[in-house]
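[Target chain]
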Amino acid sequence: MKRLYGEPFDAGFALAEEHRLAADLTAACAVYDGLLAAAQSLDDSPDVRFLRAHLHADLASVRLTATDLPGAEDAVGRSRGLLDGVASVPMGPRGRQLWLEVSLKALLAQGDVLRRTGRLDEALECLDEAAATLHEFDDPEGLRTEELGLNRVLVLMDRGEWGAAEEHAEVLLSTVRTRGTETAPRLLTALALICSSTGRFDRAEDCLARAEERYRALGDTGEQRAMLAHRAYLAMDRGELDLAERLFAEASAFFEQNQRHGDLAACEQARAFLAGRRGDITRAGALTSASLARFERLGASIAAADTMLLGAQHAYDRGDIAEMQRLAQDARDVYQAREMYERCAQVDLMLATTLEDGLNRTDHGEHERRSVDTALSLALPAALALQAARYDFVTAHARHQWLQLADQAMQLVFRLAARRQDQGLLFELVEQRTAGASLALDRTPLSAPGTEPSRAAGADGAVFPRAAMKSYGHAGGTMTLGGVASEAAASAGLRVAPPPKVRMAAQGPGRVALQEYIQAAESRYHRRIVDDREVPFWMTEDLTSRPVVQIRLADAGDLFMTWTWAGGARGFGTGHGPAEEVDQAVRELTAALPATGEGAEGMRRALGSGAMARHRTERRLARLLAEALWPEGLTAQIRQVSARAGRPLIRIQPSPRVAQVPWELLAVDGSSDVRLIDLADVVTTAPTSLRRPDPTARPAPDGEAHTVTEAGAEAGADEARGTPADADTVVLVLDPRVPGFRADSRLGSVLGPPGSDPELLALVRSRLDASPVAPSVTAPAEAFRRTDLDRDWLSAVLRKGARRLLYVGHVSGAPVEGGQSEDGALHLCCGPQTTGLTETVRTHRPLAAKDLLLGTLPMRADGEPGARIWPAPPRVALIGCESGADLRFAESFGLATAMIHNGAELVTATRWTLPTSFAFHRLAGLPESVRPLTEAIVAVDAAHESPDPVARLASWQRERLDHWRAEGGIEHSPLLWAAMTCIVV
């Protein structure tokens, strides 16, 4: 026991702490009240006043645990008043440190009170004052520093800046040194709440388990019991409603027994939501009323407003529209007063959902258009703010999970636009939704302007307004951790920014997509929706020689399509595919393809019993895909244009759900085997956010002037500066030897022994005869299975300048469910000592897309962006498994789009896992003299040497299709050749 004040005070402090750890908060408060009475009876002196300040500070902490916010505020106010009164009294070094320690405790407690009562700006000011005080305090174990960091995380969460909160919490957790405190378990609990709210349930479960273990080690039985409520929230987010109800009931009993009224009110709020989901409106109303009354007594205005919003939902469910409107407006008034703008957005979304529900239930007659307009005016700005919230998250995985929640709001918007039969609005919605995100290469402040919005209404319109509902706070100012922790946080993750404005005119000034709704969102919710940069929705200057149709698809529950003609043809249109039909067609396609991770068995199934193994079953699949995904009216337009002006070019940007669809194969005629590629050439387009402001701008080779683009990557225009001699080089990376893997292993040889394939040798010979080649070889066989083709070599040859890159080798795709397309990687000859952003695999470090994008920026202060280290040549071919899987992700930052970002004008890549020639031999029984993969490589190489690579590759694919229809042999199966697609911006 620490000796500070003598008895009975030292023993009293220890006894109160025992009661607190045992969750007997009433007894702990009673001990402090008794000690305060004893101190009051002593003769007044600076020492006695300081003793009373210390007692009040500790009492405030206990009352905060008990969620007695008025009592905590009174105690902390008394403590600070007493501390200020003795601040000028002379005291020795030890006394000064003790005064600073108690002052910090009081400031942190005051900040917590302000945070819990919704006064977030005042809370930040209080924490800033604590930070200033901390500079003088001797904190060798970092205890108060960690507590200050934790309190900042909690304020960030309440402000709705959950992306920054997660980043701060992760960094703090990695630097916590004092295990005997509650900082680490409280940080873990905060992370669990963030992860659960954004769909990362396994991570949330892990965080809660680790927090509970820490509390157990501390002997804190009270917080161990309080974990019941956190586990209940996780169960509710997972949809395990019965488990959530049981856990909330147990937690409620504990909180009521220990008079933790705020925690009890939160549980009642959650149980009211669950009762409403069960249809027990009476029970829901009673619990909502009880929760609201408790929050109002505690002065927790934001939590009370959340309960009002829940009550508004229940009022609507029982048909009391007037009460619903009253409660919703009352809640919105609180959010507006607290400048929590995106909780205002949550109210607007709820109102829009109820309007849609009303439209579905009753015939509005001539008033329907006005009702739909009203719903759209509420829902669309709010949905835009909700979508834009993802830019605050540090990792693509967190953004991916958040978007899965936010998409519910955008689905509502698309349903309303379709109901209004507004083709123009649907067109602009698709353009804005498919614009993508911009890569942010600058080291932005951790707390960037803007915050996360509220959680969207569920599919059934139900809303649960708890802490997971993101809110908005002031944009001004930054909140940094300082020192090494700050630097570590600043370099973490692949950060993105809002997309550019999409101008609806291909040339010259014009309307920006959704401009009035974007303005409303930015005005109402104080969030940046789009970047200041403008790009046309597509470029047509170089497309006048042939008719072109640009098609974009967007997932919003159903599948929505837009198309626009140019190049001598005019017109536009929209299409719509019901979700059930689209999903069924995509499932059939997925079943026909070799699944990632299945290895030889997956390839055996695809080549043996899969739909693409036989022409009859493949044609049936192609027809199913066409019926679900392709409008007959668009086919008719293509036929008309083709008859008048020649074969058109189809530029198609698929949505993530349909990104693996081989559009060339679609059987667009029910009575014959006409495929889309019979009617047109097809090229895949990437999001407009990847488009460079200057279409001629490409990252410059070494030895030339460089400029810095707005994204932070160095770029320049080759035409303006001239072309170096090396710019005619063709870079060949053919089956490089991966360190640590034998030729017959998972990352072994793709093309077989060097020199064993005469067609590949002829390809290399033709390149040697035509132009400079890197690596430098004297015989074609030397180009294969090399051991010196690592990332440093690739950087050196690309910096000198090149016109083409042909890569044939292993590609590791990123799991789509993880959301991090930037984890897709090439496998060069890089050993474990190579510098990079990915973990080693045995004795090999892959070269990931995030390396190509970020370069060395995250690793050192003078780092360079990837576009400077690996400037891509105009044409790049990446022949490996799923090398073009970028577009399967909401954020396309995989290998193909990384090459485009780094300067490539066209990238040929693959949609799914490729069968090697060896797989055809071993699994399909083809003779070794037949090498389908070699034929594909030769075809891609020839296409990239052609003035029109898209037309050349399409011509080869039509030849393959003719053989497939005529002969039906497995060597002609589209399982290989239909995987190939050219990607452009």
